[in-house]
Amino acid sequence: MDLRQFVRDIPDYPKPGILFRDITPLLADPAALSAAVEAMAEPFLDSGIELIASAEARGFIFAAPLAVRLGAGFVPIRKPGKLPFDLHSFAYELEYGTDELQIHVDGIKPGQKVLIVDDLLATGGTMEACCRLLERCEAEIVGCSFLIHLVKLGGESRLSPYKVHSVLRYDQDDEEVELSAQNEFPGPSV
Q: What is the model's pLDDT at position 187?
């Protein structure tokens, strides 16, 4: 199945110069969604994954079905003020300031095999922060899996030494700007 046909390009959203990759058509199609989850899971089927970790919010869309597919649990990584229990935190720099990610202290046990999941890899800042947070938890990070990878933005290099898998790679000369416009222009969550 050609999953690209289910990703809609929306130019100049949420601001001029950004080509937004809209995955809502893919999410609305049961066969496409199932194929996407299967493709994101495939390289990790025999890796002994115990937990899927994902940062809010769009990553959650794929994290839960991937956890079911891989026979693993799911651990949410959230922004401050969203988790009610004792926390591990990691503050990191953004293009327009700072942010912080948090996880429950009992969410991951030392040595557990974890796959980190998100819908999109762009410059890699948030995913790098997820890796650093899970390193603090002493997790064994098996890899990172994405539906979409905006290759020319260089995010993969920030995730070294971890295995990076992406289903759809966009590396042509599109006007791709990291959706850290999410940070500057919070818009729809998909």
A: 35
